[in-house]
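Reply to dn_fold:

You asked what the input looked like. This is it:
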Amino acid sequence: MISIVKKYAWIFALLLLVACNQKEDNDSVAMTPWGTVAEADADTMEQYSLDEILQSGQLRALTISGEETYFTYNKATLGYHYLLGEKLASELGVELKMEECADTAEMVTKLRNGEADLILVPISKEVHGSDSLIFCGPNVDNERWAVMQYSKELAKKIDEWFVPDMLAEVKEKQSFIENMGGVQCHEYEPYLDRKTGTISEWDELFKTYAKVASIDWRLLAAISYQESCFDPKARSWAGACGLMQIMPETAETVGLPIEKIFDPQSNVEAAAKVVNQLTMLYRDVPDKEERMKFVLASYNGGPGHVRDAMALTEKYGGDPYIWAEVSEYILKLSQPEFYRDAVVKFGYMRGTETHDYVDKVRARFEDYAGVSLADSSFGVNESGGYAGVNTKPTRRAGKTNKYQI
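and this is what came back:
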């Protein structure tokens, strides 16, 4: 009996010894966002972190919406820190991949979980979880970008690369894009021959493809003039191309080959398809004249921001199906109180251009069509094309739409 007890005691001691050895082995193994690294020495982890970025070809950055951080304007992505991030990615020879977060806490959590390489927003050293971060890059009111502790080489690279003049440089670039409208084009007159009613040399294209969008061809012409002044070679800072300023990613969704994006016929056809898609997207707007205002706003500023403004309009007691009411919240999306509201999904927007864009296109259409839009609305004829009439839209009861894109 004693021999049996001794036997099991010996087995227990052996198992305990093995467990201790395993623990010692595990202590020498470090976990990283990409898996297990054999040695836990800090130098290896630092090198591994930067090498992974270079090998992947992507710098994964976290941001929040805001004028100085990250937003879209006239089809361009802007924000001082985003523009700095682009410069950093170019320095590293990689692509900048952005992910927008709701707040600082979410950014820190995602960074610590290995879901990103860098917080591309100045944050405070007092933030929860800062003990696991290294702060680097531009210093804005004692707040800086952040990387994880194991990314010391990346932090060192950022600090060596960044110089204070860079911040002034990107601010100047952003100001220039905003002031110039972001489009490089030849400015043609709004009429080729006013006496004959010839608007442009592209009139036949507008007449042909307006049928795809079910709109008056002169409205398509008005959009083209506002977008490019009828310049088929126009290009924006953001990469929008041609007569109708089609973005390459938009071209792909409507079947426009990238090699034909500057071709006038292909470009106008793609725009007509986009207008048709947006018209379908806003079929919840019951009044057709009102609907076209939402379509125009989305063509310029994106449907996400327009839907955000609709949601805010409803939240504050307005009618989300009347453009005059929604457009006021398009403007308010530049204020933190509104773009950080829980109902807002697409963040900061400098809405002045989109607010004015609708009025400018409508005014140009009024001139081209020879009609008066005294009621500030478009008219719709029986075939679905748009012409001037003088009817007031009515409010819609029972606002239940949740505005999910």
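Confidence is low (pLDDT under 50) at residues 23-47, 379-405.
Hope that clears it up.
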